[in-house]
Amino acid sequence: MNLFKNSFINLKKKIRMMFKLNISNIKYTVLVITFFLNSCNKKYKYETGVRFFLKEEFKEDILDGRYYFFLLEDCNSCQGDNLNLNLFAKNINFQKVKIIIIGEVFNDEQATKVMQITEKYSVFRDLKSKIYSYETGFGKSMLIDFKKDNLIHNKFITDPLIDTYLKDYLNTDFKLYDF
Amino acid sequence: MSKTLLIILSLMLFFSCEKFKKDDYNELGINPGYGKSINNTGKNITLKDSLSIKLPFSSPVQYLDSYIYNDSLFFGIHNSNKIDVFNLLSQKHIKTLEFNEYEIGEGIFNVYVKSLDSIYITNYYPPKIHHINYENKLINTISPGTLQLDINNEKVPKNVVNYRFPISLSYQKPSVNNNLMYIAIEPIGASKHSGFRETQRIGVFDLNKSKWLKSICKPEGIMSLEGVFFNHDLMNPFFVRVEQKLYVTYPMSHYVYIYSLDGDLIDKKLVSSSFIEETPTSLNKNDFEDKQKAWNYRIQTPFYGPLFYHKKAGVFSRIFHQEQNLYKIKGILNDGSKRKGYVLYFDKNLKKIGEYEFKDAKLGIGKVTPFDDGLLIGRSNFYWENEDEFIQKFIYKFEKKNKNDV
Questions:
Q1: In chain B, whose CA is at the least distance from the CA of A140?
Q2: What is the value of pTM for the model shown?
């Protein structure tokens, strides 16, 4: 009974202590939490699945450079794949980008653009959408950078980011990045 | 002291709110039919025939959507603007109806054959309804402008059509009765916004006046709860019209909700599998941000297919796809090739009379089309052998049980 009473008193003391934290303690706590959150963000949750997919389907054992994944859809007004196809069909300056195109083409226009892209870039075609059999985190468009087999950056690219963020990012020399 | 009191009160409030929601979910998700055996004295489902039909060149092995008219003509949509027609009795491809993409828009996804003069096909988005006939003629198109519905949807501006005709799980087709078309509607973003729990999900369109009459059937049961989210294709209703009633089901619900054609809820009945104890815990709104998390849920979760009514047999049927493991082998996600499936069947009053098990996924997902007295079933693509073979080849029929049957 006394043991229980003592534990309860200790717990009460601890709670009281928590509320007596001064400003510098709070700052310290915030810093520690931020540090942990940042360090968590650096690791992509589905890195293992991405590596497994690229290795199994395309024999990419050592990953180096930018990998950009996007999906072809059966829909003329689907903005995403049109924007992706246009971006890569028109631009030839992007360096070290390997493009993974998921799904089959649905019309002649898509086929022409895919062909243009294939002439300019290193392209992997996942015609049967096998990516969904791996835990890669892939939803729509996804950019992952590797440097000497280390994952250094990843970002999901929503439709509005294709012509803005993605274009600017890919226009920057890959070597300039000091990660 | 006051701080401690405040914390305790906040915690009490937090837990009581959570419990309230969870209790509702548990109550509606629990399956009273779990583990209950059936005293089947009525009908059996039996494999009667296996078709052998060669596909025409460039036709797909699997059709986006299909309809069997008069228990003999199979209409299958493919390529978004073509419909293959097969005669299942003579086991031959009869014709292909083909439409100009400029006329029908971005592809058709659903087909409903009321008669050979009145075949209705619908687009996904923007929603359109086309009236065609068996002679390949486009009789009329109801445009998105005419089909505008007043749904409050903050994601889409008011002057734009803010819903779709759902195509999920390949059986959300229209039904026509006395020139009124009943059709499932899916407000854009419905799977991600709790507000749509209050939105009616079946539209009633007057084909004579070419205007919406009303929308009916807001989500009931587990689908009506705030904060409950499933994958997009598991959120849409199925319905079947039988005489003057609509029978509405949901992939994640054990119940059928029965409405009058005016939209009044008349009854609710259990149409569940005896192999599921409760609906698995739903996703939450944030889970949609992690596409992988949502996809993993979709792979594993058990779910129901549409409720069919087989007029000639006087039987309702519903397919149940059982839960499966996330992984097929280490690192490779399950492709469903071994997922167990059951045909659950019920008499006219929705009393269960049988559960037929398809071992090792010999029942394909989305490859089931009803007859007036049975089902046409295709196995999952794992079992396909020839690229030029019509895969929905197994004809199952409901038949009166013989005295000698066990």
A1: B291
A2: 0.85
